[in-house]
Specification:
125 residues, mainly alpha, 80% helix, elongated
């Protein structure tokens, strides 16, 4: 049971990391383009435009970090709480809101209905 929850957390973490990667790519393209245009309008040279683009790109990582770190912490907390609830059979009062627990249950029910088997066997210690 613990092994299956660990795999769920790893798969969820990979999915969240991939989503953050795509948000970071969008952030990179947006701010480097804006910086290049502003730099070219101010300096009227490509080198000046590239410098401003790099500066704006570095500055733009601060708000992205402020947004992504709390989102990651909340995601990991919800996933961990769900794994704990599932391992105890939801006998204790749940730490998750009912609608979020329902979403997780729907995903697991869909996987079980499709006979999704885990490819990684449970380790024997």
């Amino acid at each position: 049971m613990v092994w299956n929850n660990w795999l769920d957390v790893m798969i969820g973490e990979t999915g969240f990391g991939l989503a953050m990667f795509f948000f970071n790519i969008g952030n990179l393209l947006l701010w480097s383009t804006v910086g290049f245009v502003i730099g070219f309008m101010v300096f009227e040279e490509v080198i000046g435009a590239i410098v401003i683009a790099i500066v704006l790109l570095i500055i733009s990582t601060i708000p992205m970090s402020i947004v992504s770190f709390p989102m990651g912490a909340a995601f990991k907390t919800f996933l961990y709480a769900y794994a704990l609830d599932r391992s105890t059979g939801f006998k204790q009062p749940s730490r998750l809101p009912a609608d979020l627990r329902g979403e997780f249950n729907t995903v697991i029910t869909d996987l079980e209905r499709r006979d999704a088997k885990r490819k990684v066997p449970e380790p024997n210690f």
